[in-house]
């Protein structure tokens, strides 16, 4: 029988990607990478924004709570006003474990600061801290930044007999005058030649203290108002 010759099928040469196809593939990959990067960037920005808002809320809550605690512990003391706002700073005397503490709230730049003196049971020392607190340079080192990004702050009083909140700097709500440095000692004073203690009676002092204190903070998100009712056992 005649032998059969098997002819192999023709071989087709291997064909690779053309330059145009490679460029198109690279372009598609670049577009996908850009879309993925934008998605990740949006997630990161959203996370950072949420963390920033949470931090701001925490700082705001801490500031308001400390403000309320200071006013809740407000205590009259001879020699210095129990509560006084001069437009730049609010000063108050409050109870502490080891005596009395002078607290100063003030806004410097766009930041609200709180400063507290060491606790003392001596009128002369409290008067000395009061005079020192009149200058920002005297308390800057120990002042704690409480809240930033403020454009303005204001304090209002609710006084007995009034039916509205009024500016804390008005004459109707001014507490006792601040002590004068170098004034001679008077009977009943500290006896060390420092500023004499205030001789205003408890009844007069009580009349000058407001029934409530309103704090208004101007924040980027809008104004925040906080009212604190003062107890009558100061």
Structural features, described:
The structure is a single chain. With 234 residues, the chain is an alpha+beta fold. The chain is 32% helix and 24% strand. It has helices at residues 19-72, 123-132, 136-139, 202-208, and strands at residues 83-85, 89-96, 99-108, 111-116, 144-147, 152-158, 165-167, 212-219, 222-229. The strands form two sheets. A five-stranded antiparallel beta sheet has the order 1-2-3-4-5, with helices on both faces. It has a four-stranded antiparallel beta sheet with strand order 7-6-8-9, with helices on one face. The protein starts with 18 loop residues before the first helix and ends in a 5-residue tail after the last strand.
Summarize the structure.
It is rod-shaped, with a radius of gyration of 35 Å. By secondary structure, it is an alpha+beta fold.
